[in-house]
Specification:
heterodimer; A: mainly alpha; about 0% strand; B: mainly alpha; 2 strands
Chain lengths: ~280, ~300
């Protein structure tokens, strides 16, 4: 009898799992499927009534330009945040500092701030900086890179210090006592050992920047539109099936990158931040 | 972080104190803390300078066209805390976030449990899939949800076909739509977090209880839930915080009709260029979320202390 009950309890949790997975995956299936639909514009159907690549050939150039902008910004954010993350992690984990936990939670602070607030805060900050110094960060991509960097740094610091904490410092001491300079000890021993953390930090920083709407919506202009904001605006005001084609391309490319990062680069993608 | 701490403690325990001290004064030691200061200074500057200017702005009245008054005033906060529009928005945001937490716990906890108890090969694959969906930009998920839940979408077609309803139900462009969007946004992270918690509960504990005659219900109530409780509280808080700040889902599935605080912040600043009021709204949201977190933290630690 208790076995039967155990079975139903287990089945209920399986049912919930099935529902959750379906619910989380269905939007992607629908977007990809509907992008091949032969219907008329301004109306979307899934399952598709017929297969066509029409929408892929008519992707407006604004999406291509926006995708390029998003990519440049995300790469910049990934590079800068990994450098900051490495410095912070080395200092916290290896350094002789007081209050390591305090530093850890200090570096995690930006994640606690709602992204919309961060966007509004940086918009105002750039206005004030422009009023005082005449430097306008809103006309170029730097404004976006700096604001995204702010929310990406916690992910880099988290990933790198988690990996670095598992590296035994006696390996470095061995290298050093066997005659390696500090410089070559770092590049030939420490850095290779902490590289998975650096790569994971770069990856998360890229993802955070590339997919962002709530910060970028405050900071973009017609000249430097990012892809998610362009899709966000068009979804509200001007829906066309070619957006489904663009989104499908984004899904496919993202999925390849994410699965590649897990499978081949062996990234241990436990979410480091967001806590 | 607990991993890092544990590693550090182990290391500390392994090193005799004398050696550690010698280590600290070793003249050949690299002074890694030097690397921390520039990183900390940059993060501090990015955190404090913009925030200070922003909070300062919230104490000035808007004069229209993006201009603000010179004198300090609490008028913006008075407006936010007395005007029914803003009070209603605060209430709506909290209400939707709490509803999201409830749904995410009801669906996410059993899912995490099932994942933790299935063969590792299968759960790894599913977690990889969930991670992938959580990392792709939320705009695309919302586009998919819009198609699925629309008046001629799959869900309505299915309901009509089965004869459950006679006319399409309104799933989007209302609060229900925003709730569905928030669940979509927060569920993967909750499942992944709870998975790692439930995994630490040994299956043998459940078997032992079952052998001693525990029913499935009492097993959940007396073993699984109490052991997973710290994880549940943490997961619920993260879900709540993410929902309180959610902007994209609220706009795209609320159809502009569901005006939560994040939506109002963006409208106030971008559309009506009332920077002072927008700053006051943002600061209120920040303080509100902070206070709720502190309250839940105190409540959770008290409950832990009271139970023997």
């Amino acid at each position: 009898m208790s076995l039967m009950k155990g079975f139903t309890g287990f089945r209920l949790s399986w049912l919930a799992a099935g529902f959750a997975i379906l619910f989380l995956v269905a939007p992607f299936i629908v977007v990809v499927g509907a992008s091949f639909d032969t219907g008329e514009a301004y109306f979307v159907a899934f399952p598709p009534r017929g297969i066509t690549f029409e929408w892929y050939s008519s992707i407006p150039s604004k999406y291509i330009e926006a995708a390029w902008t998003s990519f440049i910004v995300a790469v910049g954010v990934a590079i800068f945040s990994s450098v900051v993350g490495m410095c912070a992690a080395l200092g916290i984990v290896r350094g002789n500092v007081w209050g390591k936990e305090l530093f850890q939670s200090f570096f995690r602070l930006p994640i606690q701030i709602p992204l919309v607030v961060t966007g509004a805060v940086f918009l105002q900050f750039y206005y004030q900086v422009a009023a005082i110094t005449g430097v306008n960060a809103l006309g170029n991509l730097w404004g976006l890179v700096i604001a995204h960097l702010f929310v990406a740094i916690p992910y880099s610091v988290g990933s790198v210090s988690a990996v670095l904490a598992r590296v035994d410092p006696s390996i470095e001491e061995a290298a050093h006592s066997l005659g390696a300079t500090h410089w070559s000890t770092f590049w030939r021993v420490t850095f290779p050992l902490m590289r998975p953390g650096v790569a994971a930090g770069m990856f998360y920083s890229f993802i955070v920047s590339f997919g962002d709407v709530p910060i970028a919506i405050f900071l973009v202009s017609g000249d430097n539109m990012t892809l998610p904001v362009q899709i966000f605006l068009d979804m509200q005001f001007d829906f066309r099936p070619d957006m489904l084609a663009v989104s499908t391309l984004v899904v496919v490319v993202s999925a390849f990158i994410i699965i590649g990062a897990q499978r081949f680069a062996g990234l241990d993608l436990v979410l480091p931040g967001r806590r | 972080m607990s991993m890092a701490n544990r590693a550090e403690q182990k290391q500390r325990a392994g090193w005799p104190g004398k050696v550690r001290n010698a280590h600290a004064v070793d003249p050949h030691r690299v002074r890694w803390e030097r690397f921390l200061w520039p990183a900390a200074a940059l993060s501090f500057a990015l955190l404090v300078l913009p925030q200070l200017g922003f909070v300062w702005l919230s104490f000035h009245q808007d004069l229209g066209l993006g201009q603000i008054s010179d004198e300090l005033t609490l008028a913006n906060y008075w407006t936010v805390l007395t005007d029914p529009l803003y009070l209603g928005s605060i209430w709506l945001t909290i209400y939707l976030s709490v509803a999201t937490v409830v749904v995410v716990m009801l669906v996410g906890f059993p899912t995490a449990y099932a994942l933790a108890r299935m063969p590792a090969r299968l759960s790894t694959g599913i977690l990889g899939l969930l991670l992938t969906t959580s990392l792709i930009t939320v705009v695309i998920k919302l586009m998919g949800l819009n198609i699925i839940l629309g008046s001629s979408g799959m869900v309505n077609n299915l309901l009509l076909y089965l004869g459950i309803v006679s006319s399409p139900l309104q799933f989007i462009n209302n609060e229900l739509g925003v709730l569905i969007g928030l669940v979509q946004y927060t569920l993967p992270l909750f499942i992944m977090l709870l998975f790692s918690v439930i995994q630490t509960i040994p299956l043998s504990l459940e078997e032992a209880a079952e052998v001693h005659g525990a029913t499935r219900a009492s097993l959940w109530r007396r073993i699984i839930l109490p052991l997973a409780k710290p994880g549940l509280v943490a997961g619920a808080l993260i879900t709540f915080n993410m929902s309180m700040g959610a902007f994209t889902s609220a706009v795209l599935l609320g159809g502009g009709r569901v005006r939560t605080i994040p939506v109002l912040i963006q409208q106030t600043i971008i559309q009506s260029t009332e920077y002072g009021l927008g700053a006051a709204l943002s600061t209120t949201l920040l303080v509100l979320v902070f206070l709720i977190n502190v309250a839940v933290g105190i409540w959770a630690s008290r409950r832990v202390r009271r139970t023997p």
